[in-house]
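Field reference: sequence -> structure
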Amino acid sequence: MADEQIKNTPETDSKPVVSEEQKANIIKKIIECVTAVMKAAFSKGDADTVWYKKGLYYTAAGILAVIVYLFTYHGVEIIDWLTALVTSLF
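Structure field:
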């Protein structure tokens, strides 16, 4: 009886939700987008603007630089964490 139950149970291959190649592509796209926005923030800060606006642009560029750093070195873990967070919510 136990052998019949084992034979009749369908085997399910647990595939990851997002493959490693897809994660790498997502990370590259995020880094490219944030880098472009960071460069735009630096160029706005270099323009003839008021001192507090320069500070805001440089602060935004610094925050974006931290995001680029995090995704460059810890992107896969961040994607895995976000995936786990979203799947646990639903």
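Note: The two ends are 37 Å apart (CA to CA).
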